[in-house]
Amino acid sequence: MQNTENKESAETTDSVENKEPSANKEPLADKEPSANKEPSADKEPSAHKEPSADKEPSADKVGQMSEAVVEAATINASAAAEDASSAEEGPQPDAAVDAPPVVPDIPFSQFKLEEPLERAIKELGYKFCTPIQAQSLRYTLRGFDVTGKAQTGTGKTAAFLITIINDLLKNPVTEERFIGEPRALILAPTRELVMQIASDAQNLSKGCGLHVVAMVGGEDYKKQLAAVDSQPVDIVVATPGRLIDFLQNDQLYLGLVEILVIDEADRMLDMGFIPQVRTIVSRTPHKDCRQTLLFSATFTPEIIELTSRWAMDPVMIEIAPERVATDTIEQIVYLVTTEDKYKLLYNIIKADGADKVIVFNNRRDQVRKLADSLYRNGVSCGLLSGEVAQNKRVKTLEAFRDGDIQVLVATDVAGRGLHIDDVSHVINYSLPEEAEDYVHRIGRTGRAGAIGTSISFACEEDSFLLPNIEDKLGQKLPCVYPEADLLAEPPAFTRPSHFKDESKPSTRGGRSGGGKGGSGKPRPRR
Question: Looking at the whole model, is its pTM more than 0.85?
């Protein structure tokens, strides 16, 4: 992330080891201990045991946790409904919950949510839970830590936001609060995902009187600071790099965080953000003094290890979809030469029915060049990549949502977590190197029961990636040669070049405000 250097985790753990749990933080009243552990309601970490957010788990423990996920009993929809109706005194959680792919018919009203939140959910038109919501809320609303495995688009964002908002409403702070002391923290790997989560949080907390602040790199730092300083903040949604900027400038204090959410942990791992996340976690209360929710698309050994470090006896919930790709998406692969790929793309975009198209390419320079060629050919298009300034990215997304531009050309990182209705086509101009990225790409279309089309180009340079994608999907993809009319020569460029390289050379020099360890005291800003 911008303006942030990765630091060794050892430099930041001292603050947690020497930090007493916040005096004004009450443990959740309805939180029940796990079956094999009976902590007292006001338990402090033992004097002879140094609590550390980054404690290394033993190999045996990681193995046991992985075993628990594999051997977990299946909980069917009727059991989920039964537990939801008795959320007040619900059962002790198993080590893992392997939820069925069938969407349970469980209304949100069964969870007895706080009235303002329940009203906001109704206004948004939500009636029934998705599987990840049904299986996680029955535990998270009672204060248990949860680690959830679910694909994008399954409703996990609403699952943890409902948990946060309900808890903050149920346990209001009566004493004086200071500026820059959030009660809930949500970490996400990309700017777009942070903005989407923050928008969802605003919608769900409508009428709840909660202050939500989004922190992302590439956007005006002073404006984000002004949002923090305007009133006591309840929920912070942030990318790791920008959050560390605030911490190092002593403008945010995480010692009173009651709920910590780490979304798309697998993506954090892939993008190298875990050292930064470790630094952030070390600034929050110890794991037995906060609720921790972690969500990932996969349960790799690394994710299991992170869960054991950061969560307290977490309930492992796995939502296994019936199919990796939904039946509402028509998938096709065109076998084409590298030389003919642009011709094919242009003619597909110009065909009837290609009303709202997302084109994915693997690198920033490829995305920029492709978007520029389309623009010069008279196509209304926008560019979404890490080199584009955040304010421009937001405007581009708004224009695409509103239908002002027809085509959005994006990289995987920039396109991760996009929730845009009525996307007619997703086109993989280049096949992704990771099969998981293919699933995320095509998931941008065919949403909410709508019909969508996924078109992939396989050329001599990347066709070898198809078998891995097919293994991930569990099905063969139809591979055909494009018809002659789809390879017709595009017209000559009619407009000048529009998309320039906006990446800037890095500037060296210290960051104002300096950095402090986690032992620093909160700055009393009123």
Answer: no
